[in-house]
Amino acid sequence: MDKLRLHLAPWDVGEPNLKNGDCVVLRIGKNGPAWYMDDCMKHKPVVCRLTNEEPMNMIPQTVRCPDGKEDWILGETHCYHLVSNSSMFSSGFKADHDCFKYFNASLASFETQNDLELFKNHILHNELSASNALIGLVRQQHGSYAWKDLSPVTFLNWGDDEPADVKGRIIQQCVKMQLNGNYTWHSISCWQSTHFICSTPVVNIQHNHTNENDKTVKPPSSHLSNDKGKKDSKKLVHDDNNHAGNISTNNQTLLSPTPSSSQSISAITILGEFCLVFVIVLIIIGGLHLWKRNRRLRLGNQRIIQFDQLQNEEENAI
Prior knowledge:
With about 325 residues, the chain is of the alpha+beta class. The protein has a domain at about 65-205: Mannose-Binding Protein A, subunit A (Mannose-Binding Protein A, Chain A, Roll), CATH 3.10.100. Helix content is about 35%, strand content about 20%. Strands 4, 5, 6, 7, 8, 9, 10, 11 and 12 form a 9-stranded mixed β-sheet that branches. Keywords: Disulfide bond, Membrane, Transmembrane, Transmembrane helix.
């Protein structure tokens, strides 16, 4: 509320969850204080702070997590979700597919140190059963490392003697993050199954900026200006009516057909009908002529066959 910049947030497990509300409530449990989201309309005790310091200017939030992932950990370039359920262990070969299948996301990538710090500050205050988790960094054939979601590799947080390479053989191509200490990264075999972290790119927030130069300045009102405005408005209305009348007259002139155009259209229609009838008559005459020709040929063939039969009978009789 005092617009101070937030450096550390002891969120409870699964928080901040904006589905529960927009206000933050402090809960003091056996593991210490923790924050959680709640409905702002609920009545609760309040905690105040006295200070003589001048509050810092509020830095507007420029990114957020995508819809449906409001309870994910907001980083600088990605939002993160730690899958710490013991029933959802996954290997380095399968974890990226599981992130896509269950969360429509990718195996986590940390482009900047701020991404890691924001993730670490959130995880530090949660009671975790996981000691490490897979991230989306994988070793390529030529020895370099790349993120599975094709994010640029601009930041690395290797532990001591990492990445490991046993006698020049590439046997550890996947990477896990230690969820304690400095949250360092360590290479492991992709066949090993453990917890995993999913991530998805942040969504930019559009802010509406108001420019002082864009504000409309109203002129001072006076009786003279009002009278002049009324006269000008009457003149404009009269001119608009005349202009509208001219437009309607011109449109009627353009749209109304002339006698010559009507006669030409009717002549074209009659000529088209005559041509169509003429073509139909030609088709009928041609069909009759073809039928008669075929009929003559059939009769001629029958006569020839009959003549041949008679000739054969006479020859047999002789």
